[in-house]
Amino acid sequence: MREVAILGIGQTIIDEQWEKSLREIGGEAALAALKDAGIPRAEALFVGNMLSPILNGQNQLGTFFSDWVGMWGQEAVKVEAACGSGAAAFRAGLMAVASGEIESALVMGVEKMSDKAGHDVTAALATAADADYEADQGVSFVGLNALVMRRYMYEYGWKHADFAPFSINAHANAMHNPYARLHEKISVEKFEKASMVATPITLLDASPTGDGAAAAVIVPADKVSSVAGRPRVRVVGSAAATDTIAIHSRREPLFLQAAYASAKRAYEMAGLSPNDMDVFELHDAFSIMAVLSLEASGFAERGQGVRLGLDNEISIQGRVPVCTRGGLKARGHPVGATGVYQIVEVVQQLRGECGATQVEGAQIGMAQNIGGSGATILTHILKAD
Amino acid sequence: MREVAILGIGQTIIDEQWEKSLREIGGEAALAALKDAGIPRAEALFVGNMLSPILNGQNQLGTFFSDWVGMWGQEAVKVEAACGSGAAAFRAGLMAVASGEIESALVMGVEKMSDKAGHDVTAALATAADADYEADQGVSFVGLNALVMRRYMYEYGWKHADFAPFSINAHANAMHNPYARLHEKISVEKFEKASMVATPITLLDASPTGDGAAAAVIVPADKVSSVAGRPRVRVVGSAAATDTIAIHSRREPLFLQAAYASAKRAYEMAGLSPNDMDVFELHDAFSIMAVLSLEASGFAERGQGVRLGLDNEISIQGRVPVCTRGGLKARGHPVGATGVYQIVEVVQQLRGECGATQVEGAQIGMAQNIGGSGATILTHILKAD
C-alpha cells in the first residue's frame, strides 16, 4: 500500500440551513476542498452520508455529487456506517488511492437534517441501532446512550456533574470556530441545570445535529511537498473495527472494543502511541462517548476517563486536547458528515490554522469516528512533516 | 495494485421471503460464500444495499452483518449506488484487497423488499433518480425508463415486439436456475399481451423485485490455485463510471455513457475486447436497458442492440449470451443485491456449473451493474485459468 497525504480540505458552517439544499451544502464543501487542493477535480468521489435516503428522498449520492461538483463521468460511490459514515468514506477513498487504482480521491461527508420534523429525525437516527432488537422495542438512540451512561456512573461511582468539563471544553473551543453550530460559553451551573433528554443525559451532554458538509482531497504522499507555512499532512494510520450492533450483546457494554481495536491497529501502523498525539478529535456525540473513547484508545484506565476532564487534561493546553474546534457537542453533529469534519479539523491543527484554539506545535493528530453506539469505529492518525 | 481472485460464492433464492428477515437472508448468502471458499471468516466485509434504511429501518449494514455472520470485530462497511450497490460493494472489497491492506474480503449484496407495501417500494425506488428534478415532479423510476424506451423506438424505428427476445431469453434461462424468482416460459404472444406498467413498458419488459442476497469472497490471486473441476477465477477488469444523475441533463439520453466508459476501462485493464466475452451478465432491469447496455459496451452499433435479440445472438449458443441465469428479468432484481448476483453467476459459468444453460467452454465473462437510469455503471471482467 502506498502512502497518502491530504492535499486540500473544505467545510461549511453547521446550522439549520433552510435556504440551502442537500446538493448546495455538499457542493460548497467539496468545491472548497478542491480549491484548497488547487485542482479542478479528483479522479473519484467517495461520499459519506447516513440519512439522505430517509430524510431527503435521495440515494446514489456518489453520482448525485460527482454530477454537481464538476466531476461528471468520474467514479463515485456512497459509503455508510451510520454516524461513522464520514470516516468510512475517507478510508474507502484512502484505500482506492493507496491501491494505486486512482491518483486522487475527493472524500466528502454531508448531511441535511432540518428538512424534516424532529420526531422524523429521531426515528431516522434510530436506524443506527439494531432495528429488530433495539429500535423496534421503542428505545431511541439517545435512550441507548443514556443506559450506558447510567451504568457507567453506577459502576465507577461518578456523579453527573463530573462529566461537565467535556461539555464546557467543547463549548469554549467552538467560540473560536466560525463553522461551529453553537457559539455559547457554558458553566458548571448551566451544565447542572440543563434540560433532561433521557436520564441522565441532558441537553448539555448531547450533541446538536444540523446541516453541514466537510471534504478532503487524498493523493499519493509523494505528490505533495511541504511549502512554507503549510506542511504536508500524511495519513500514517487508518483502521476500522466493529463490535456487536446491539449493546446488549456485548460482554463489556462500558468498553468500546472497536475503539480499542481500531486505535491499536492505527498506532501500530503509524509506529506511535497515545502519548504521541498532540490533538485528538473524538466522537463526543454524548459526553459518555467522549469518556469511553479516551479509555478504549489508551488515554485513561477504565472508569477513569472522566478524570481527564476534571484534571483539565483535555483543554488546548492539556495532555490530550480534544474537541479543539468544538467537537460534536458544539461544532455540531451532522451525522454522516462528522467523520470528515474531524479529519479536516486535525489537518487545520497540523497546519497551524486554529488561532485561539491552536495546539502549540501540533505535529501529530488523531480522529476517531463512531457509528451506532460503538458498533463501527474508525481511527485515523495524521502527521505533518 | 495486486491481482485478486474470487475464492467462494453464495446466493439465496429470490422471492417474497415472508418467513425470513433481512438478517437471515443476508446471512444465508454470506455463510454459503464462506463455506464455498473454505474459510470461517474474511478480514473485512463490504455490503451492497440500497433500500434497507427506508424499507427495513436498518442502517449500518456492514456491522449488522459482520456481527451476524461470525465476523465480530472485523472491519465492515456498507456501499450504496442505488441498483448498482452490489457491484460498487464488490469493487470496494476488490480495492481493499488489491491495496494490500487486507488479505480477504467478503462482499455481499442484500435486499429485503417485501415487508412494505408496493407503493412504498415504488417511492423508495424513486430515490435512485434525482429527488429535486425527477422524483419530486412525480415521475416514477419505471416512468423514467419508459420515456427512454419510447424515445428509442421513435428514434430508431423499432416496434415494442422487437424487444421480446430479451424477455423470452431471460425467462427461458431462468427455468434452469433454482435461485430464480420466476420459472415461467414465455412466448412472443405472451409478451405482446402483457399488462402495461408505463407505456411502452409492460410487465414483461420490467424485472421483478424481491428478497435475496448473494455473496463472494475476494482474495489475492496468488493465494488461489486451480484444482480439478474448479478453475481459479481472477478479476481481470474492474471499473466504475458515472453520468448525470437526471436523464434530462444528458446530451444523448439514449447512450449509456457510463457503460461505455466503464466497459472501455475494464477492457483496457484486461487487455480484452467485446469479442472475447463468452458470457455477459447485463443489467436488464427493463428490456430497453439490456439493449442500451449492449450498444454502449461495444456489442452493437447505436440503435442496433435490438437486432442481437432478433438474430438470436443473445442465447446460450449465440455470439454474446446474456442473462444466462435469468437476468434481472427472470432471476429477479433485489436491487442492492443484483450486482453481486451477476458476479456470482459469471463465476458459475466460468466454473462450468450451469447445467442446461452452461455456455460451452466459457473462460471469460463480464458483469455490468447499473445504478439509477444509467447514472452509475460498474463493469467487471472475470477470467478462469
Q: What is the structural class of chain A?
A: alpha/beta
How helical, in percent, are the residues of chain A? 25-40%
Biggest sheet strand order of chain A reads 3-2-4-7-1-8-11-10-9
Number of strands of chain A: 11
Molecular structure report:
The structure is a homodimer. Chain A has about 375 residues and is of the alpha/beta class. The first copy, chain A, has 13 helices and eleven strands. A nine-stranded mixed sheet of chain A has the order 3-2-4-7-1-8-11-10-9, sandwiched between helices. In chain A, a hairpin with a 4-residue loop joins strand 10 and strand 11. In chain A, helix 4 (about 85-100) crosses helix 13. The longest helix of chain A is centred in the first third of the chain and has 16 residues, at about 20-35. Chain A is globular, with a radius of gyration of 19 Å. The two termini of chain A are about 20 Å apart. The model of chain A has no long low-confidence stretch (mean pLDDT about 95).
